[in-house]
Amino acid sequence: MEQDGNKVLQRKIIHIDMDAFYASVEQRDFPEYRGRPIVVGGSPDGRGVVATASYEARQFGIHSAMSARRAIQLCPDALFVRPRFDAYKSVSTSIREIFRRYTDLIEPLSLDEAYLDVTEDKLQIGSALEIAQQIKDAIKNELNLSASAGVSSNKFVAKIASDMNKPDGLTFIGPSKIAAFMEKLPVEKFFGVGKVTADRMKKMGFYNGADLKKLSEDELVRKFGKTGKFYFKIVRGVDERPVQPHRLTKSLGAEDTFEQDLETADEMLTELEQIAEKVTERLERSKLKGKTLTLKIKFSDFKQITRNQSFLTPVSDYFSIYATAKDLLLKEEMKGKSVRLLGISLSNFGNTVQLSRFVNPDQLELF
User: What's the CA angle centered on 20, arms 16 and 23, to 5 degrees?
Assistant: First the structure.
């Protein structure tokens, strides 16, 4: 709730998530790709990995982080396309211009995903559902792309809602429906619960929110560690985090918890590329450069490690970020280990001179 004088305002949050963004941009820009199974990523002739796949390709079971060789086995007619990040960034800028017609409270999560707080929208439309529909229509009519939207009173529920009716979906979960919705939600659909954790929960007899809700906060902490406090809140649909377009930043980064644990270096590097892209975009938006990069790795057994690398001068470019994170990852002994989360963050935005290593972008091999 937000206070407006003596009036209490119910927060109105929209989560916008573009549909198969990279692949959809390729199909839009190249008519010969339309209706075909498109895989954006590396070549199946080498050690390439899928970055994203069109919905036509997904029908064959192709998904991100899958090896390109496996993808071509599943769909021999798939067309493999190398990513064009400049094109995706340009489209992302246009999408945000559409957002700004309605609100300045925008928190981008990546090139294709953002939260919007429309509790008080610029056009005084009042209805978050109507605003979400107008945004979707503008994206379709002006950019010839589709987006899915989730609408609720907090970020967590809005994000879940946006994924419920993809592609081109619009899902509203009002405040009075949140408790019942969360009770019915399968544990694997909870944000932050990957495949390994979901399987672990099910072995304990927890299949949905209602099952988890039976446990006290202390019981959840005993079973799942500090994350239990998070589960206690989200199972009740409680998320008081504000949409944050501007904030004092001590560190900036991005991380992903994967639906399926990553088993190979190729899978990990593909995910690391996308995380590095998110971090780069966020640094550019915030006009920040950092001197210390931190790689975060969480394994399937929940053991977590971090590795750091410092630079002589602050960096914010994709190639330095990805190359450094890749180097830190490959230095780790990963044989026999599977990974459930990877993260990259930049910090130390001051002027202190520290040791560094030279990164030559020309020597990088993304795929």
Answer: 135
